Every structure is written in structure tokens, then in C-alpha cells.
Amino acid sequence: MTPTRLDVDKRLAKTMAATFSVPDALISSDSNTENLERWDSIRHMRLILALEDEFRVQFGDSEIGALISFQVLADAILGKLGIDSKRDTR
Prior knowledge:
Non-ribosomal Peptide Synthetase Peptidyl Carrier Protein, Chain A, 52% helix
């Protein structure tokens, strides 16, 4: 079964909270490198690896530096999974 945008958002939030060692409530669709203090370069790489495992996708070296917010990450994951992020809002 193909995940929905909501499924991806939930799994992304849970993975981000675990990677950054913060409560789930601190992660939202507005989370980014500017407003999440624990999002540093080391944790960024850990997050990328965790997301690759969680969603069974791979990010290219040229993509990783641009993945700096919840929204950008969610859109990138949806794209890798072949889900249209603009249409699938369930």
C-alpha cells in the first residue's frame, strides 16, 4: 500500500523527534534548521540516514544540503516514493 502525505508526515515527525532527542510535540510542519536548536550538521546527517532507512529511499549528495525543513524533507520523500505532494493531502 502506498503511503499518503499524512503517513509520510507522521513518520517524518517521529523520525525527526527521535533523531534530535526532542519530544514529538516540538516537531511540526514548520520545523527547520533555524527554529530547531538541536538540528546541527551531525544530527542532520543522522536524520538523513534515519530517513533513508525509514522510507527505503536514497538522497543524493547534491540533495542533502537543501533538506533543511520539515516541508522540504516531506516533499523530497514523497517525490522519491512517487507520490504527488500537491495532490495527496489525505
